[in-house]
Amino acid sequence: MMLQQCILRTYYVLALVLCISASEDFAWTKNEKTSFFYGTFPTGFSWGAGSSAYQTEGAWNTDGKGMSIWDAFAHKKGKIFLNDTGDSSCEGYFKFKDDITLMKDMKLNHYRFSISWPRILPSGLKNEHINEKGIKYYDDLINMLLENKITPIVTLYHWDLPQVLQEKYGGWQNVSMVNHFNDFANLCFERFGNRVKYWITFNNPWSVAVEGYETGEHAPGLKLKGTGAYKAAHHIIKAHAKVWHTYDMQWRSKQKGLVGISLTADWGEPVDITNQRDIEAAERYIQFYMGWFATPLFNGDYPQVMKDYIGRKSGQQGLGASRLPVFSPQEKSYIKGTCDFLGLGHFTTRYITQKNYPSGLGDSYFTDRDLAELVDPQWPDPGSEWLYSVPWGFRRLLNFVKTQYANPMIYVTENGVSEKMLCTDLCDDWRMQYFKDYINELLKAIKDGVNVKGYTAWSLLDNFEWDEGYSERFGLYYVDFRNKNKPRYPKASVQYYKRIISSNGFPNQREVESWKRKAVETCSSSNQLLAAARRKSQGDQEHAGMQKAWPVHDEV
Ligand SMILES: *[C@@H]1O[C@H](CO)[C@@H](O)[C@H](O)[C@H]1NC(C)=O
Ligand SMILES: *[C@@H]1O[C@H](CO)[C@@H](O)[C@H](O)[C@H]1NC(C)=O
C-alpha cells in the first residue's frame, strides 16, 4: 500500500488547519454530505483482499531468495519505526495454506498478491539464475487459490527491487531497468500465465518514485530532490509499456489475460469551490499524483500542467532543460493505450489551496505543484495520522477517472484503514464504518456509470507497513507478531465484510443495520482468546528466562 507521510506535507496540513479552522467552520463540507444508498453491485462483481510479498511473506533469505532493496533498507538502523524488518513478518511464505482457508471462509472472489522479483531471480537477471524453489512457492499458491475458486490478481512490482540492480545500476534511476523488468515479467507470463489472467505491472509507482528517490523515506532511500522522482517515474512508465507490449505480442492470444497498473491517489477538493485558483490547484494536485502516470498510459504524454509548471520552474532555476523528462513521438505512441484495466488504490482526501513556492529554494516535486494541502479537523481520523475518512472523495475520484480517461475498466486494488498503535481491540467499529461508507460511495459511482469490476480490501492481514514497521495495522485479521507462530485472529470487520460480500452490496436498511451488532457478538470472544494467548506467551517467556537463570542440571 502507499504511505505518503512526507514530513513536509504533514507540516502544511497541520499548520494550515490551525489558521483556517480558527476562522472558518468548513461550511462548504456540509453540502458534501450525501445519504446512504441501498442497493447491490452488478452480478459478477469481484470481492477480494490484498497483500504484497515483502509485507507478508517473511522468509527473506529462505530457499535461495536474493536480497531486495527493502531487505537492505530495513536492515539499516534508523530507517524503520523501532528498527523493525520484514524478515519474518506474517510468515506468509510458510502459512499461505492457512491464509487461503481464511479467504475461503470470507468467500473472497479474488486475492491480490505480489511476486517477489529476487525470490525467483536472486540476482535480478533472468539470464543468470532462475530460483526454481521460488517459482514453486508461487505455483503452489496460485494452484491452491484456483482449487478454492479464488482468482489470483498478481502484482509484478510491489517495491522489492533486487538489491543487486540497485547497487549495479542505481535502480529506477537507470533506463536499463526497463529491459531487466521486462525479462522478469516475461518469465512470470511464461511460468504462471496459463493460470493467472490479471497482471498488475506496478503497484503505486508514485510512492516508488517520490518516497524512494525524492524524500528517501522508502527504499532505496535516495534524496534526489527535484529530479529523482521524475526520472524514476519516466523509466517505470516505459517499463510498464514494454511489459504490456510483450504480453500483447507473445502471450495474449494464448493466455487471454489482461495487463494493467495500480495507481494510488487521494482525492483533492478545492478549499473554496468559487475560487478559480483553488480549483486549478486541486486539479494540479490530482494531475501530479495520478495524472503523472495515467495520462501517458491513456493519452500518450504527461499532463500539460506538469510540463508547464516543472518546465517554468526549471527555467527559473537557470536549467537548460525541464527536470521533467520528455517522451519522443515514437515513445508517446508506444506508451499510449497500454492499460487493459486501471487498478486504483485510494484511502483519503485533502482540501487543496493555491500556494506559491519561489523556485531556487530547494525545488522538489512538492514545491513544483504550487499548492498546499489541508484537512478538515472534523473528519474522522481513526488510524494512521494521514488517513482521514472522507468517503465522498472516493466517488469523486472514480468519476474523475471516468471522464479523464474515457471510462476505463477499473479494479479497486486497495482501500482500507489502519488502527492506532498498540490497539489490540478486535472489535474494530471504525473499520466497519470505513468499509461501509467507502464501499457505498463505490456503489454510487457505479450507478454514476463508472466501470468498476472489483473491489480489494487492504489488507487481508496486519503486515509490515513499510517505514512504519508493525505500528500501523490495516488487516482484516489481526496478527500477533510477538508470537513466533504469528497466529491470525479475525477482527469484527471480517464478519462485516463477509456480509457485504454475501449480499453483494447493501440490500436494505433493516438488514444492514443489524450487521455491526452481529459482527461485534463474535469479536469479544476473539478478544478473550487473544488476551489469553498473550498472557500465556508472556508466561512462557518468563519461564524461559527462569530456566536461563537457574539451569536444570539434568544433563550431568
Ligand atoms: C534503532 O537503531 C538506532 C541506531 O543503532 C538506535 O540509535 C535506536 O535507538 C534504535 N531504535 C530502537 C527503538 O531500538
Ligand atoms: C546505468 O547503468 C549503466 C550500466 O549498464 C551505467 O554505465 C550507467 O552509468 C548507468 N546510468 C546511470 C544514470 O546510473
UniProtKB/TrEMBL annotation:
UniProt record similarity statement: Belongs to the glycosyl hydrolase 1 family. Klotho subfamily.
Signal peptide from the UniProt entry: 1-22
One Pfam family recorded for the sequence: Glyco_hydro_1
Protein name listed in UniProt: Cytosolic beta-glucosidase
Composition skew (Basic and acidic residues), residue ranges: 537-556
Record's keyword terms, sorted: Glycosidase, Hydrolase, Signal
Origin species: Lates calcarifer
Domain of life: Eukaryota
GO biological process: carbohydrate catabolic process
Enzyme Commission identifier(s): 3.2.1.21, 3.2.1.45, 3.2.1.46
PANTHER family in UniProt: GLYCOSYL HYDROLASE, LACTASE-LIKE PROTEIN
Reactions this protein catalyses: beta-D-galactosyl-(1<->1')-N-octadecanoylsphing-4-enine + H2O = N-octadecanoylsphing-4-enine + D-galactose; beta-D-galactosyl-(1<->1)-sphing-4-enine + H2O = sphing-4-enine + D-galactose; beta-D-glucosyl-(1<->1)-sphing-4-enine + H2O = sphing-4-enine + D-glucose; a beta-D-xylosyl-(1<->1')-N-acylsphing-4-enine + cholesterol = cholesteryl 3-beta-D-xyloside + an N-acylsphing-4-enine
InterPro entries: GH, GH_1_N_CS, Glyco_hydro_1, Glyco_hydro_1_AS
Active-site residues, as the UniProt record annotates them: E414 (nucleophile)
